[in-house]
Amino acid sequence: MPLSRTWETPCRRGFSTRGGNARKSGTAEVRPRSEVRSRVGCPITETASSLADMTPFAAFGPNINFRPNLHRNGRAALFTRNTHDLEELARRLRSLPGVAAKNSIGVVADVFGGGDWWAGPGDDGAVVHDRGRNLIVGGEAMLPAFVAKDPYGAGIAAVLANVNDLAAMGARPLAIVDTVTGPRDVAKAILEGLKWAAEVYEVPIVGGHLTETDGPPSLSAFGLGAADLVLSAIHAEPGQALVLACCLDGRMREDFLFFPSFEERGERLAGDVRTLAEVAERGAAAAAKDVSMAGMIGSLAMLLEARKLGVQVDLDVLPVPAGVPIGDWLSCFPCFAFLLTTPAEKVGECLEAFTARGLTAQRIGTLDDTGEVRIGDASGSVVVFDLKRESVTRLAR
């Protein structure tokens, strides 16, 4: 019989956490911009060769270690700016394992029904209205192989994923609860990772459930936040600007396309993620999406598929970290990178909110009603996703 034990973890600002035995709460042709744009026709699901490939955070494990100061540089460039490489880049971005993994999300709508995007499923967090207040709730499950290989890193990833999802909804994170199972030493390492990240992001771990067992370890975490004005994909409209807000300070890992900024930003990350709430409250953003396992363009398609909108991402103005090939940057999971849709008259205000903190922000496109998510430069453009014909998550029906 597995043993359930009470655990306690101190957190920043005097919070402590306590849990008990029960659960708490095809081909492509690149043409000049003036001509018909090309499409990349490979199915979204073609790279999902195993269950692990279709699992969120699958690419993290078992060889990725999230611990700070263990990252390196040294990847060869895939992308140079010519039309042939635009086509190759589009194929790469469409066939990322993280994109294929998102397709399995559609099973939720298969069971619960599609409903409307606001009521869910849809955005990164669910909106719960409580006496005039918008509470945002969400959750993340870590791949068991990742947890077993690097339990400390899995703890960090669980907090990072929840905080970024809350921020993308315009929420300030209030608390996180978790469920942990596994051998005692593994559970302890998970909790230490949770504690470290909770202190960095200044969000308390307020409870959870721990089961000591000799079986495979597991970790899930669930975030709670509050938003005065909610950022949602249903608020995106043609004519709005597409803004990328990101941290370019850091170094790409060599073994896995993760771009961490923990050392470079430190505790400033806590304020960084809360900047999206400030931008929302000023009316300087309508919708947002954190860039994660689907890469920048896959994440963008997920943001736009609710309204079946399109956009061309201008690679000539796209901010890219020094020394990082653009193909790697568009494919990676950054520690801090968000895509925001912004009213045209509010673009300057949106950019200033991030640049004032030493972050990078840049307008990289304008939303339209084509449903085509395109990448382009001075040489031409190529369609990566056609949202009038397909859905990355199968939630947009």
Automatic annotation (TrEMBL):
SUPFAM superfamilies: PurM C-terminal domain-like, PurM N-terminal domain-like. Residues 277-375 form the PurM-like C-terminal domain. One of its GO terms (molecular function) is thiamine-phosphate kinase activity. Residues 122-226 form the PurM-like N-terminal domain. One of its GO terms (biological process) is thiamine biosynthetic process. Residues 1-34 are annotated as: Disordered. This is AIR synthase. The lineage of its organism: Bacteria, Bacillati, Actinomycetota, Actinomycetes, Streptosporangiales.
